[in-house]
Amino acid sequence: MWSYPANLELDTNGTYLVTFPDIPEAASVGDDADEALLNGLDALESAIEIYFDEKRKVPFPSKPRKGQPCVVLPTLVVAKVLLANEMIHQGVRKAELARRLDVHMPQIDRLLDPRHASRIDAMEAAFNKLGRRLEISIV
Q: Can you give the residue ranges of the HicB-like antitoxin of toxin-antitoxin system domain (predicted)?
């Protein structure tokens, strides 16, 4: 589970601002703390898209301070982050992964879209072509 520690600040107009120390590009607001954290997930996913577009590794979440709120990324988004980070680590571009998987580029674009509901078998195949294995566990 990837839980990004969040900072909540009460704004002068009574709304809450949520920011993330690990991903400074992500910020959002809400009428209350719960709404701000919920909107924070959308902000995180948007920031992750920026990292993907700029071919930058997405930072892993740091350990939260005691009592610090966190926003949990959905498992599929975590898998996409790990895939993108592995591609960067290995120097594999999208076109090369498409060639290895024998698929068209739009399919790779969807694999790296945090908002697209990719099939788990497609994610697994992509990791396999990078010499890695996707594992899922229940805690």
A: 4-63
Sheet holding 27-30, edge to edge: 7-10, 16-19, 27-30
Look up residue 3 and give its DSSP letter: E
Where do we find the tokens 């107009």? Answer: 13
Fold of 3-72: Double Stranded RNA Binding Domain (3.30.160)
Task: Output DSSP code: residue 102.
Answer: T
The long-range contacts involving 40-48, CB below 8 angstroms and separated by at least 24 positions, are 40/6, 40/71, 41/71, 41/72, 41/73, 43/18, 44/4, 44/20, 44/71, 44/73, 45/73, 45/77, 45/114, 45/115, 47/20, 47/23, 48/23, 48/77, 48/80, 48/81, 48/114
Residue 1 has pLDDT above 80, yes or no: no
For the chain, the domains span 3-72, 75-129
The 10s digit of each residue's pLDDT in 26-57 is 999 999 999 999 999 999 999 999 999 999 99
